[in-house]
Write a structure and sequence with these properties.
alpha+beta, 4-stranded mixed sheet, 12 helices, globular, binds flavin-adenine dinucleotide
Length: 381
């Protein structure tokens, strides 16, 4: 009899067990140190690659595992077990936002030069869209690419870029025409090299990840590094948004489940007024509400995932899953912290970090307000 929850099968559950074992053995024990050092080592990419975990959804001919988005979904959920949002974010940005556009839109030459070494963990990728003057309003980017003999010269600045210090290549949105709006955006794969400088940013959570500002100072980019069609970069952005948002929803569901389990265990153990915390109705009811939130988020996310994998275009369901889970995860972490009392406010407890790490969810990958705008349009409002 199968113990897998649809849309997952027993095969996915086997992958889950092995990915979980690997993460708990190889990554989680170092999470605290990496957070304190504000950096996780690049070797983590190689370790995942050796397990086949950097290429689950990619074809075998490029070194991938020949799986699909459901295999990748398993990893997104299990990554929460690292216990360091920053480490999960850095690895996740490489897997879920930097390499998919090359797989979908890249030429054979680009796949050989970037996707193959990325799946091997030898070259690390970043996706550079956001700028100091343009975040939610992507169409307002101003990083310019001027046509020159044999390629382009790029000038401008990106900010808040995950893997922005360590990335060997940056899949970068640039303006290739003077006109404004969605037209005239193109993507270039920019190698780290002359004219590319990064400066790390300090932030509330995700401490182990290198979020950075990247300046491009007259960087020459060869013709063959144009990714997708000239002036049609907006299509490339839209093509991966659904998956990026699903990946975030799955990550939140994974993190919420673990936080609930740990907090329930703490509440059964910790004594107050002669009985365990869970023996007090207020705490018991709070934990019941939190279990309901985990279950609701999981159902909504799995439903969107099922539709996505079936090849439908579940814009509304994915948007709802992203909106629901990111805020719910942050609120759940805060409630878990409250149940820990003073201990929850201390650095040595996991929950203090979990709250900080969860705060990014309602901002990144399209903010809550932008999700509501998309829903408003899809609901003909
Ligand atoms: C840790 C971290 C990692 C990131 N990683 C990456 C990365 O790898 N690559 C990348 O390209 N970007 C990345 N980002 C950028 C992220 O996608 C943006 O921060 C996000 O899209 C919001 O853009 P903004 O910060 O410019 O905020 P703004 O767009 O300036 O928005 C500010 C506020 O106004 C609200 N708002 C904006 N427009 C509207 C509207 N029309 N109606 C109502 N409210 C509105 C927003 O929701 C927000 O609350 C990252 C950000 C962080 C913090």
């Amino acid at each position: 009899m199968s113990h897998a929850d649809p849309p997952f099968t027993d095969e996915h559950e086997q992958l889950r067990a092995s990915a979980r074992g690997f993460i708990e053995r190889e990554l989680a024990p170092h999470a605290e140190r990496w957070e304190a050092e504000r950096w996780f080592p690049d070797e983590a990419f190689g370790k995942l690659a050796a397990q086949g975990l950097l290429g689950l959804k990619y074809p075998e001919e490029y070194g991938g595992q020949g799986g699909d988005y459901l295999h990748e979904a398993v990893l997104c959920e299990e990554m929460a077990r690292v216990g360091s949002g920053g480490t999960a974010a850095g690895l996740g940005a490489h897997i879920n936002i930097a390499t998919p556009p090359i797989w979908k839109f890249g030429t054979e030459d680009q796949k050989q030069r970037y996707l193959v070494p990325a799946i091997r963990g030898e070259r690390i990728g970043a996706l550079g869209i956001t700028e100091p003057g343009a975040g939610s309003d992507v169409a307002s980017i101003t990083t310019r690419a001027e046509r020159v003999d044999g390629g382009w010269v790029v000038g401008g600045e990106k900010t808040y870029i995950t893997n922005g210090v360590r990335a060997h290549f940056i899949v970068t949105a640039v303006k290739t025409t003077q006109e404004g709006g969605h037209h005239g955006i193109s993507f270039l794969i920019i190698d780290r090299g002359e004219g590319v400088t990064s400066s790390a940013l300090h932030k509330l959570g995700w401490h182990a990840s290198d979020t950075a500002t990247i300046a491009f100072d007259d960087v020459f980019v060869p013709e063959q590094n144009l990714l997708g069609e000239l002036n049609e970069g907006f299509k490339l952005i839209m093509a991966n948004f659904q998956w990026e948002r699903l990946a975030m929803a799955l990550g939140a569901v994974g993190a919420m489940s673990i936080a609930w389990e740990r907090t329930a265990a703490f509440a059964r153990e910790r004594q107050a007024f002669g009985r365990p915390l869970s023996g007090h109705q207020a705490i018991r009811h709070k934990l019941a509400d939190l279990a309901t939130s985990v279950y609701t988020c999981r159902c909504v996310t799995y439903d969107a995932l099922r539709r996505f994998v079936a090849g439908k275009d579940p814009l509304r369901e994915v948007t709802m899953a992203k909106l629901l889970t990111q805020r719910a995860a942050y609120e759940l972490m805060d409630d878990c912290l409250q149940i820990h009392g003073g201990a929850g406010y201390m650095r040595e407890y996991w929950v203090e970090r979990a709250v900080r790490d969860a705060r990014l969810g309602p901002i990144g990958g399209g903010s809550d307000e932008i999700m509501r705008e998309i829903l408003g349009r899809s609901l003909s409002l």
